[in-house]
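Record 1 of the preview.
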Amino acid sequence: MRSLMVLLLLVLAACDRQSAQQEQAQGARPPMSKVDISHRGEIAPAMPFLGPDGGPATLATFRGKPLLVNMWATWCAPCIAEMPTLDKLAAREQSRMQLIVVSQDMAGKRAVDPFFAKGKFAMLKPYIDKENVLMLALNSETLPTTLFYDADGKEQWRVVGAMDWEGAQAKKLLEDSLKR
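->
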């Protein structure tokens, strides 16, 4: 029931696959993103999700180095548009930070594995949260949502909506955060 409510909220509040695909086909820019610092200092939740090997993972697994977490889904056009730029960002910044993408697809590996096979990403690995427990714990209703945690696992900011992770705004945001 909880997953159904989350799905309904996502459909109503965020990613509209059909409209987003039509906008992209017409050459429109991705939806505007919003940088939110209202959760700054909050510790990353310990909600479990699946790692690329199928075993359990939590955000605490990544402490010790800054972490960028992107929550996305295969049915979300803005999410899909971000993936290549996130892959390039992960390659470029691997010495300074970690980057994971956590799918919110309820179909889990059935939806995510073919997407990753087709995408041929160099750095991204498929993390899966088909119960949407991470989104609920983070009080997030929009896909994509990307969160930046410092090395101690404290949230610094989140981007709600799509962002060009190779663009000037993203570069400045990350550079300022990685200097700390």
